[in-house]
Structure formats: C-alpha cells, structure tokens
Amino acid sequence: MFEYLIIAVLVGWSAIVVFKKVFPQTANAMFMSLSNVCQRFGWRRLALRLKPKMVVGCGGGCGCASDEKDNKKTEEIQAVKWR
Amino acid sequence: MSDALRVALVGNPNCGKTSLFNHLTGTRQKVANYAGVTVERKVGHFQLPSGKNVRVLDLPGTYSLQATSPDEAITRDVCQGKIAEEGQQDAFLCVVDATNLKLHLGLVLEIIELGRPILVVLNMMDEARRRGIQINTQKLSQRLGVPVVETVAVRNSGIENLLHALDQGKYTVPQTELSGLTGEHHQKIETIFKDVVNFVDQEDKRTDFLDKIFLHPVLGLLSLAVMMFIVFQAVFAWAAPFMDGIETFFGWLGETLGAHISQPLLQSLVVDGIIAGAGGVVVFLPQILILFFFILVLEESGYLPRAAFLLDKLMFKAGLSGRAFIPLLSSFACAVPGIMATRSISDPRDRFTTIMVAPLMTCSARLPVYALLIAAFIPAQTVWGIFNLQGLVLFGLYMAGIVSALCVSFVMKFLQKDKSQHALLLELPSYRIPDLKSVGIGLLDRGKIFLKRVGGIIFALSILLWFLCTFPQAPEGATQPAIDYSFAGMLGHLMQPIFAPVGFNWQICIALIPAMAAREVVVAALGTVYALSGADDEAVAQGLAHLISADGTGWSLATGLSLLVWFVYAPHCLATLATVRRETGSWKHVAVMTAYLFGLAYLMSFFTYQIASRIWG
Q1: Which of A6, A64, A72 shows the shortest C-beta gap to B25?
Q2: ipTM
Q3: PROSITE patterns in the record, alphabetically (chain B) (predicted)?
C-alpha cells in the first residue's frame, strides 16, 4: 500500500510539472485562481506558495534569465579574527 | 525598492551594455562579440557603495532614436518616456565604444537633445589604447556638457568609478549651450572628434590581417567549412570517454539501487522509469559541452559576423535577409531566443521568413537524439584516412537543417507578393582573444540548463511515461509483455499504422508523444519503453544504443535513418510554437509552421525509409 502512495505522489507531482511547462498560461491562470481561493479562506502561506511567479522569455529553459531577481550575492562584512 | 535610483543603459549595438549590466547586477545575461544579442529590455538591481539601491534597465542597442526594427523601437520608446512603467528614469547611462567614437557619438547627441540626466560611459578603453587611440575624457565631458566615465566592462575595470559617479549623483541634464557646439549632428561630431581624439596608430593590424583570410571569397569559405568540420569531429571524438564513464555510472546506480528496493513496482519506477529514462539523457552532457565550447569561443572572438558576411550572398539568393544570420545562429542553441532575436530585423517580410525557418536550425535538444541514433546505427570507423564517420553524419544532419531552411525560404520568396530587396548592413567587430573565464562561465551555464531540464521536465515526463507504460497491469496468464496491456502500449499500437510507411514501430510512436514537450525526452522515453518491454537486464545495462540496434529485436538501419531525418524537421517543441504565437500574434502562422514542418518530416522520413530499406534491407 505504501508503495502505491509514493507512486501516486510522484505521478501527481510529475503531472503538475509537465502541465506547468507545456501549458504555462493555463497553468498560471489556474494556480492564480487557486491562490485567490486560498487567500479568501485566510490560508495566506498556501496562497503565497500557489501564486505563480512571473517569468519572461522561454521561462529559463534556453538560458535566458526567467525572472528579474538579483542574482548577486551581497557580501556580508566579516568580523575581524585574530589568527 | 520604490525609492531606488532608476537608470537605463543605452548605446549602439555591441558596445558592451550587457557586459556592464552583468557586472553591475551579478547576472549572466547572454553577451557576445556581435551586434543584436539583446532584443528586449532586461531589469536588474544592485547597490551603490553608500547602500542606495539602483534599478538598472538594459536596452537593445540602436544606432539612432529613429527606430527601424522592433528591438530599436523599445529603446526609442524608453528614451522618449513613451513606456509608462519606464517613464521615470533618473539617469541614462550612455555606453560608448571608445574604438568607434565617431559612430557612437550620433546616438549620444540624440539622447542629449532629449534633455534628460545623462552619464556617458566610455567603454572598451583597453582596446582603444591597444590601437593607439587616445581620448581626452575631460575635454569630451566639457564638449558634451555631461560627465564621462572610462570602463572596460568585460574585464570589470572602471566599474568602481562608475558606481562612485552614480553615488555622487554625477549624472546631469546636458548643458549643450555651454559647450559651444553648433550645426548639424555630423558637424558637431566632427568638431568633438577632432578636439578629443588623437590617433597614434590608426590601424588595427590584427583585425586587418585576419580579415584578409576570413573574408576572402575562397579562403574565407574554406576556413568556415574547416572550422565547422573540426567542431563536429570533436563532438564525437572527444566526448566518447566521458560518455562511457557516465553510462557506466548509471548502469551501476541502477543495479545498486535496484538491489536495495524490495517492492517490485517501486524498483521498476526507479530503475526502468527514472534511471533508464532521465539518466539516459545525462549521458549526452559531454557532447553538448564540447559543441558549446566551440560556439562560445567563436562568439567571443568576433568571427561570427564575418561568417554572416560570407554567407550573405547565398542567403540573399534564398530569400533570407543578411540580418537573419544572427537569429538563425542563436537557433543552434535554442529556437526560442533565435525567434526572439528576429526583432532586430526591420522588414516584416524578412522577419516572418526567418521565424518560419528558425526551427530548422539544429538546436541543442536535438543533439542527444542524433548522438543516440548515430552511436546505434553508424559504425565508429575512419573514412578517407582522417574523418570519423559518426562526426561526418552529424555534420550532414546539421547541414540538412541549414539547406532545408534555405530551400523553404526560397519557396516562401516565390509565394510572397513583396519582392523588394534589402542590402545587408553589418558592423564587423574587432577580433578579440576569447576570455577563458567567460567561456568557462558560459559552459557552466549551458551545463546547468541541460541538467535543470533533465531534473525538471525530463524527470517528470519519465515518471509519467513509466506510469502510462505500467498501468493497467497485465492480466493473469498474459502471453505478451506487460507493456502491451498498458495505456502507452495501447496508444502506441493505435498510432503505429500511421507511421508504418516511415518505418516507425509502436515503441517509437509512444516516445514521440512526450517528445512534443522537449526533443531530448524521446531518448528518455525510449529508455523507459525498452526497459519495460521485456528486454533482459544485461541488454538494458549495455545501454539504449545497444537495445535499439540489437540483431533481431532492434530496429533496421532504415528505421534508424528515418527517425534521424524525422528529427531534422519535426517541430517537437511546444515552447517554440508558443514563442512563434507571441512574436507573430497569430495562431494561423503557428498552424502553418506546424503543418509544414510535420509534413516535411513525414515526407522526408518516408523517402529515407523507402530508399534505405531497398538498399540495405
């Protein structure tokens, strides 16, 4: 029984990934409305997780940047240590 | 971020805007040593030494604000404040190529006339010094009435000065009336140029010497052919030991994991579904990296626009604009950025033709498919003493895509009513020694993209396909392999009669469906289907290439060649079709493209299969 549960979870996850990649606009619209429903019920964290992220170009599949996020890691000032 | 300083990078094509953008923001947007790489605005963020946030906009290059193509129109609209969300730029960073100041000053003057705050970034100063071009930056600043900062974006030099200039608010509204400039643009440029530039030695001897070879009508074409040949030979010859290593690793992984999983269904999912599927695609990583190593080196060197110049005559005769070369070249990596790069083509007819033929260029997703089929059906032997036969076939497949694109555009030229002709105007950049660090970063990025696809869409599709190949399970007392009773088996048998004339068996038919999401999925799908088709473990461990070419149970040579030809033409990429819809704004064009490409794929595969089966049986 346990193996069927693992398989069901993996197959379900795969179906969502493929759906998002193959039909990005429909998937975006669907996840956006799901996110709105969750927001209305007060499930904010779930709503935030479901809300689709904005992507540009091919969605990063071909190497172009897919979002407007700053990739630069800000260097933290390290405390001086006696060596 | 709302109180962030908003700046926009503007300048002529290939002046180093995107290199500067990458250094400022820490991103890795594509850069190359030719014009027209950036075709849409890109936004990034960075911090000034004072801690102030900056929002920077990278705009497509343009020679003038009189836009002639869709990408130039974006820059014009942002500069003129016509795009609502980009209307409030605090400063324009006008990037200028120091080696080509006379040409680039035209756009600077146009932007100055807009009366917006501006800071001139004098880029490529190292190259200017190498060529003996001395520029008096202070005098240039006085003449233009705006501050000027020197940089070498590709080497990260001068960036600190630029950051400090931004921090100190050294971007000013131009004071042209104070600089004493009068007359038309070209007169002003002449005055400024004479005043601020001093040539010690005007010639770029390296570029002149190399151009004598690479732009020569005979030597140029010969060197282009030799270069392409070396690339495809290397793809097979250099990659083999690494591919063997990866294949052995996945064989070991399958055996080890399989031995530790006692549940038969889970074991089948991990070994037959995931490792045979997604793992089978990772094997082709070395070939992709070798191919991109050469492409990146050629991009960085500045050779590629020369190839465009050499092939212009041929492309012109076939009905393609010379400006189509760069978009078509981009399509060798992926058709999506290639189709987007057609925005640099000003003529709508030329742009449409380029979009329609771009999917015929051999994208990197085809490489695993070609490599698998070539390894399975073409013997690894040497011909004419020096050439690797497998490399020759790969070269032939790439050429088949190029020749087909020329033929299709030739037909489109006849069908179109507008017969006007456009000459090619192309700026040839100076040759540069490729920066090993940039090539390394580019290769790392390509590797990451490939592995991300394997870990994402290919991994997910392998699991889905395993599910469709496993359920419903075979009834008790079944005589056929279990896969025959599954959803995928039933679908494959249903489709097989349609593809029988081109020699495809039901296993190939199944694999073609998930391959619509991405071409290389066909390799993963075949791996899963054959692993579940009752093939013995020893055969599976030897790899997919052995399975499909095995005597008796494998395919005929005619089927292998037919599938190779199918993938030259078939539009197995939904992302490409979606991009065509976005760029043309019409589903009709998408339908026409899909129909003609599938039609060509079927027709060419049919002829290949029929001819090959008559010759080799």
Answers
A1: A72
A2: 0.72
A3: G_FEOB
